[in-house]
Amino acid sequence: MQLSATLFNYWFVCKRKCWLHAHHINLEKGYDDVELGKFIHETTYQREKKKEISIEGIKIDYIDGSGAIHEVKKSSKMEHAHIWQLKYYLYVLWKIDIHHIRAYLDYPKQRKKLQVLLLDEDISIIEKHLQDIHMMLACDQPPKKDKKSICCHCSYEEFCWG
C-alpha cells in the first residue's frame, strides 16, 4: 500500500493522528486551522500555471517554470514534518527514476522559502519510517495519547483529550 504524503507528514507530527487519519477518522473538515491552510494554498502563487499535480499517490502543490516542485504551508511551526513530507515526495519521484529535482517549502505568510534535498542517507531513513508506519497502521487500536504542545491546535484535540 502506498502511503499519502499527508500520512507521512502526520507520522512526524503525531503517530496517533496518523493512525486516526489513515483509518478514516477525519475531524479536519471545517476546522479553522485546516480551512485557513487550504485558503492559503488556493490563493497564493496564482501566477503558477500548474497547481496540485498528482503522481504516484503524492500531490505536489505546484511545479515552477524551472521544474522545481513546491509545497505550500501555512506556518513553519511543523517545519521538521514538512521537510520530511517533501523528502517523501522526492523519494517517490526517485523511485520512478525522476532524479535531481529541486524542491522548496513555501511559507507565504512568513515570506519564507526553504530548499529541501533528498540525501542518500534519507532514502534508508524514509524506508524505515514507511515500514514502521505500515506496522502501526496494521494495529487494531491507535497509539496511546501523547500530550504535546501542538495538541491545542489539532483538529483531533477534542477526540483525544475531550
Q: What can you tell me about this protein's structure?
A:
The chain has a single domain (5-161), classed as Lambda Exonuclease, Chain A. Helices cover 43% and strands 14% of the residues. The chain is globular, with a radius of gyration of 16 Å. The longest helix is centred in the last third of the chain and has 18 residues, at 120-137. It has helices spanning 5-13, 15-22, 32-43, 79-95, 120-137, 157-161, and strands at 53-55, 58-60, 62-63, 69-72, 103-107, 112-116. It has 162 residues and is of the alpha+beta class. The strands form two sheets. A four-stranded mixed sheet has the order 3-4-5-6. Strands 1-2 form a two-stranded antiparallel sheet. The chain contains six helices and six strands, in the order αααββββαββαα.
How are the secondary structure elements laid out?
Blueprint: H1 5-13, H2 15-22, H3 32-43, E1 53-55, E2 58-60, E3 62-63, E4 69-72, H4 79-95, E5 103-107, E6 112-116, H5 120-137, H6 157-161
Parallel strand pairs: 4-5
Antiparallel strand pairs: 1-2, 3-4, 5-6
Helix pairs in contact: 1-2, 1-4
Name the descriptors.
162 residues; four-stranded mixed beta sheet
- The level 1 CATH classification is Alpha Beta
Distance between the termini: 32 Å
Mean pLDDT: 86
Helix content: 40-55%
Number of strands: 6
Supply the helix-strand structural class: alpha+beta
